[in-house]
Design goal:
alpha+beta; 6-stranded antiparallel β-sheet
Length: 564
């Protein structure tokens, strides 16, 4: 076995030394040792150059590969960004088309908010609805504030949260609107012609942690905040409906008169032309009068919504392009909200006017039937009760029979009552509110969150088969357990005190049947409670006269106290 040193020399030096000796033999220099030394030095330099060239080649290949990969990566990122942009633009176009034709803009809010989040990179997007201070349907005091009504999925916890008035910076958008309204009103006094459309004032906070007025609903984080007023002219309220009905009828009459006059003039012209052909004298042609009556313009109230976006947790601001994009969507939403409400109100008015002829016929028929029913009720009570029955008992018996007839009448008008669901504005909403309360529906399922006023959009969804089944099964007689404070008889009676049977019938005989049933339900319930209390008191008095202990209070006694 060879020594390691020998092996080392053979492997690392031998091949190159042999090559150098071979060169000495070939060249046969005068000083072979000097030649060999120089050859070895040259060999080393050559090898170093070859190694460097190889190294440079490998580096160039590596650099080329890196550059290629970087270019390909950048191209891929560009393609991804372009694809993402195309997808956003497609979603934007689709949502814009849906918004332009939808009847319920609120239904599209989730999709629009998600689109805004994707397009701007916001952490959260949400919409608040500002309500002024006032009194609710049950006399409660409503505090002014912004209630959040829509939010992206990761901000659902904000829904129904209230931002108190003057807290934070968000209210500045409305102050700006008020100031601009005053300035525009002053300018309008001095200028004539159509005024340019006012642009919304945007609240923009680039760094929320540097603004002391910022209000945080959750943990404060670095980021930016933008609030844009989504303020529009709303016409879906009762006064606008009433005025709209009057104006629409007037417009129809004026239009019909204009058409009649036009046709009369055309007939007169035709007769004059015939007379002229027959040799009569030429008549001077009259100019056609232009149509002067205009379609009705509905009353409006300002509805103040606010669109909010933030980048909390991202430590970045919104770009000017982001804010411009947000404003574009706000403009589209404002335009659609106003147009959709006008269309909905016009449809409700048209349906109401069409229904009035049928309603008049139903009212006349109902009056005749009611008179006949009263005669039957009187006869039935006279036959059922002894002659010495008290007037109180007679009235109670009569009202129970009237209640049964009223229930049948409501069920007869079931189809017409269900048709009221198509109305976006309903008159006498408290009739429905009291009906829902009396039948045990939860208050929160039918009223506005910030007050006790009926939310018709929610309530009309519950006006269904279950409602009529519950109504059919309801009886005002006997003990009732678990009566909620808002459903006590005195409160329900108070709700209806300013509404008359005549005005409800005039609006809708079908809704009038429900009002009549409610009135009788409450009336019979009050009499039932009164009679049961009276009977309980008489039982206690008899027990005292006989020297027995007075009967203990029962669940029925507690119920009578609770319901009265």
């Amino acid at each position: 076995m060879e020594h390691p040193d020998v092996l080392y020399l053979k492997e690392q030096v031998g091949p190159y030394l042999a090559e150098g000796l071979a060169s000495v033999c070939i060249s046969q220099p005068e000083d072979p040792v000097d030649f060999l030394g120089k050859w070895l030095l040259n060999f080393v330099s050559t090898k170093e150059l070859e190694l460097q060239l190889e190294k440079d080649k490998l580096q160039r290949e590596k650099d080329h590969k890196t550059q290629f990969e970087a270019t390909a990566g950048a191209r891929l990122e560009e393609e991804k960004a372009a694809a993402s942009k195309r997808a956003l633009e497609a979603d934007d176009s689709r949502l814009s088309e849906e918004l332009a034709s939808c009847e319920e803009p609120d239904a599209l809010l989730p999709g629009i908010l998600n689109q805004l989040k994707n397009a701007t990179g916001a952490t959260g997007v949400y919409v608040g609805d500002y309500k002024e201070a006032g009194a609710g349907a049950e006399g409660e005091e409503i505090e002014a504030g912004i209630r959040y009504i829509a939010a992206t999925e990761d901000h659902q916890w904000l829904l129904d949260e209230i931002l108190p008035e003057e807290v934070g910076v968000t209210y500045d958008v409305f102050k700006a609107d008020e100031q601009e309204d005053e300035e525009e009103a002053a300018e309008t006094d001095e200028q004539e012609g159509e005024q340019p459309k006012k642009k919304s004032k945007i609240v923009h906070v680039p760094n929320v942690l540097r603004d002391e007025r910022m209000h945080f609903h959750n943990i404060p984080l670095l980021g930016a905040y933008v609030a844009v007023p989504l303020t529009y002219n709303s016409c879906l309220f009762e006064e606008a409906f009433d005025a709209g009905v009057t104006d629409t009828i007037h417009y129809g009459e004026e239009l019909a008169q204009y058409e009649a006059d036009r046709k009369e003039k055309e007939a007169s012209k035709a007769a004059a032309a015939a007379s002229e052909e027959a040799g009569g004298e030429d008549e001077e042609e009259e100019e056609e009068e232009p149509l002067t009556v205009s379609p009705p313009v509905y009353q409006t109230r300002t509805r103040r919504l606010v669109l909010c976006l933030d980048t909390l947790g991202q430590n970045r601001d919104f770009s000017s392009e982001n804010i411009e994009y947000i404003q574009q969507w706000v403009d589209k939403m404002v335009a659609r909200y106003e147009a959709a409400e006008r269309e909905s109100l016009a449809k409700s008015i048209e349906e109401y006017i069409k229904s009035q002829q049928a309603n008049k016929g139903l009212a006349e028929k109902h009056t005749a039937e009611a008179e006949a029913e009263e005669e039957k009720i009187s006869a039935e009570v006279a036959a059922a009760l002894p002659e010495d029955a008290s007037e109180e008992v007679k009235k109670f018996t009569e009202d129970k029979l009237r209640f049964d007839r009223a229930k049948m009448e409501v069920l007869k008008f079931k189809t017409q009552i269900l048709e009221l669901r198509t109305y976006k504005v309903i008159k006498h909403p408290r009739v429905f509110q009291v009906a829902f309360y009396l039948l045990g529906f939860e208050k929160n399922s039918i009223v506005q969150k910030e007050s006790s006023n009926l939310d018709w959009n929610k309530a009309r969804m519950l006006l269904n088969e279950k409602f009529f089944t519950t109504l059919q099964e309801y009886t005002p007689l006997g003990p009732k357990k678990g009566i909620k404070p808002y459903a006590k008889i005195d409160k329900l009676v108070n709700h209806l005190k300013d509404i008359s049977q005549e005005e409800v019938d005039q609006y809708s005989i079908a809704l009038g049947s429900l009002y009549r049933w409610l009135s009788l339900s409450l009336n019979v319930r009050q009499q039932d409670v009164h009679l049961r209390k009276q009977q309980a008191e008489e039982a206690r008095e008899r027990a005292q006269e006989e020297g027995a202990e007075a009967p203990e209070a029962t669940e029925e006694d507690e119920d009578m106290a609770e319901d009265s």
